[in-house]
Amino acid sequence: MTPLLAARGAGRRFGKTSALEPVELEIWDGDAVALVGPNGAGKSTLLALLAGALEPSMGRVERRKGVRVGWAPQRPAQYGRLSARENLEFFARLEGEHDARAVAERLLADFELPGEPAPSANLSVGNRQRLNLAISLLGSPDVLLLDEPTAALDPAQRARLWERAAALREAGGAIVFATQNLEEVERVADRVAVLRDGRLVFAGTQDEYDRLQDESLSA
Amino acid sequence: MSRVLLLLRKDLLVLRRSPLLLGILLAYPLAIAVLVGLVASYGSSKPRVAFVDEDNLPSTLVLGGNRFHVDRTINAVSKNVKLVRLSADEAARELRNGRVVAVVTVPPGFIATLRGMVHSPQLELQLSTGTISSRVEQQVQALVYSLNRQLQRAYIASNLRYVTLILQGGDGSFLGAPITVLGIEKAQALLRSMPPTARTRTLLDFLHDARLALAHTGDALRSTAHPIELVRAPGRGRSQLLSASVEAYALGLTITFLALMIAAGSLAAERDENVVGRLGRGLVGLGQLVWSKVALAAAVALALGLAIALSFGLIIQIGGVTGGEPWRRLPLLLLGLALAGGSLGALGALLGALAREARSASLVALLVVMPIVFLGLIPAEVVPPAGWASDALPFAHSVRFFRSSLYDLSPWGEVARQGLWLLGGIFGGLARVGARRLLV
Description:
Largest sheet of chain A: 6 strands, mixed
Order of helices and strands of chain A: EEEHEEHHHEHEHEEH
Structural class of chain A: alpha/beta
Number of helices of chain A: 7
Largest interface: A-B, 26 and 21 residues
Order of helices and strands of chain B: HHEEEHEHEHEHEEHHHHHHHHHHHH
Distance between the termini of chain A: 40 Å
Largest sheet of chain B: 4 strands, mixed
Number of helices of chain B: 18
Strand order of the largest sheet of chain A: 5-6-7-3-8-9
Radius of gyration of chain B: 34 Å
Strand content of chain A: 25-35%
Structural class of chain B: alpha/beta
Helix content of chain A: 25-40%
Oligomer: heterodimer
Shape of chain B: elongated
Number of strands of chain B: 8
Strand content of chain B: 5-15%
Number of strands of chain A: 9
Shape of chain A: globular
Radius of gyration of chain A: 17 Å
């Protein structure tokens, strides 16, 4: 049995700057892995490497055969001059959805996105983030990689997102999410990876992470 | 639908949402093409030439009984060059500093030599170095040609008066000295009044032949003066503004501008929109992304180039001029527009990949367009290095393709050569390599 997704010594440099030192991380069926750490720790780079959006400068990323990955970067990745519907239809076709229109229609309704032909650049920050998340769900992914997904969402939308994540895990999928929200870590994650200055400094279960925090506090 | 076509469709939709941008992108190069055409036309037709008169030319001159208006003749030349009367010193200084491109000097004694009608007087011409001097030399040669034609008429008339004097006899002058000539006719009459002998018959035969020959002297002199005469035929060609070259350059310039800007801007915009990573994770390869921009540039070039060519064709048709109407060679022109748009789009994609941000890419494309176009406008035979540089870029090849496909009687050789160059895809390959920068 192989993990759904694994970073095998995967790291990334931008010129002379190291954004992420080699990382070992495995994502298994049903996992909910939280990536935590201060800004610039390398969380987004690790997610981009796992998503295949960036090529690792060293090491490799392995994906179990047939596994599909959805990715929602921290900054929404969509075309500002296209409407929400057009964005969804465009990416649905690229993902190979048979009925791109129907899929787009369903996601518009699920994420309560406006259906009018206004450019998505005119949407509110929250709606742009919803569209970003909706696009990441195209192609029925088995692993969902979410970079600070709830930062611009209202409480109801947050709840709906985590319900969706839970359903994915129950179906044998996994989620990996970067967050600064410790409450979300506690509520959603069963494993935690801590990054600092581009290095993976801790990887363990939620309980192990809690103990680490208690020790840090007592120290 | 292939991924490249999906991206192309998306880009066309985005472009349709920006009518102002599209309008500016179309109007700007057309305006530049017209301005360049006007400047080039003005620059080539009115070089500034100094005129130094060291012989105090009179305003009118009588030669061989004919009156010449010297001022009018000089003014006629001013239609082609701007003649400015200067002293010899001023003219020399202005030639050195480039304010005039040539100096025409009338040396002392010019009129006296002319009046003598024995030796040819000389005009002196000094030229600057550089590309325009050959054209100025042609203009001054045209001035001398015009003067010579007028003088030839006077010389022929004067010579014919001597012939008439020889034929009919009477009083005249030669080199200022009065002369009295018996004349052939009177000599014949005199010989006929004498008793006929073998010697008088021989003289009469000679005089008869001489009279016949001299009777044709006028025609002979005129044809000797003008072995070939240029006669302006009736009929109309195109105006300079609608000439074949201007049409090909207008098409080339517009497409170069559009293709470079659109391909560079749209590729860099993928990074600005933060979608390169999303596309790059297995949905669309970088090569496909680059080729979609090449296809976008080709599609825009095809549509707008065709509109420009048809507009030219309509204007030409309305003007009643035949030859070069685009509908005769439409398939060939369409092929050329697509190839040129694609090749220039590949160069634009390379710029977009290198610049990475849409604003920077547009600025870089704008900065690159002008040198590319101006290099293509400089004739290779005048500045060979400019020709070599231009040959390495798609603009000159596009213009040659358009010119040949629209106007050459047998365009296939030239069209095949230029088409193969445009199809080469060297810039597409470089853009594909450069596109990796978009992921950083």
